[in-house]
Amino acid sequence: MKPSTVWAPRILSVLRIVVGLVLLQYGLAKLLGWPAVEIFKDLTWLSLFSIAGIFELVGGTLLILGLFTRPVAFILSGEMAAAYFIEHFPNSFFPILNEGDLAVSLCFTFLYLSFAGGGPWSLDAIIDKQG
Q: If you average pLDDT over residues 33-50, what whole number do you get?
């Protein structure tokens, strides 16, 4: 068996964990103030940023664990698309100019995960083996 064939599913799990950690930091910063980010300092509950923070905190945690990966990733893909079109797109069509690179990249990474699943290093994989 080729090394790429053996490692591809494992790297899928690593990708899921890393993007989950990236997303989790935004949820923590928005909702708990850690790490401290100036733009998120005075968020009010039920603002768009706070609601996004809830999705990011819960979704990031579930992605790290690899639990309900497909539906969570699909929802997060939609959240990132909304974030892009609400916050970035009005400033410019081009992500490099409107600072929407991360939102676009995460949107399509989550869309990929919604089809690919969590990989072998996930709670989803453990549950599937037991079922």
A: 95
- At 63-98, the pLDDT tens digits run 999 999 999 999 999 999 999 999 999 999 999 999
DSSP string, 45-79: TTSHHHHHHHHHHHHHHHHHHTSSHHHHHHHHHHH
Please give the DSSP secondary-structure letter assigned to residue 85.
Answer: I
Dihedral angle, C-alpha 31, 35, 36, 37, nearest 10 °: -80
| pTM, two decimal places | 0.95
C-beta of residue 101 within 8 angstroms of C-beta of residue 110: no
Amino acid at 80: M
The domains of the chain are located at: 3-130
> Quick one: 41 exposed, middle or buried, by C-beta within 10 A (0-12, 13-18, 19+)?
exposed
- Tell me what pLDDT residue 42 has: 92
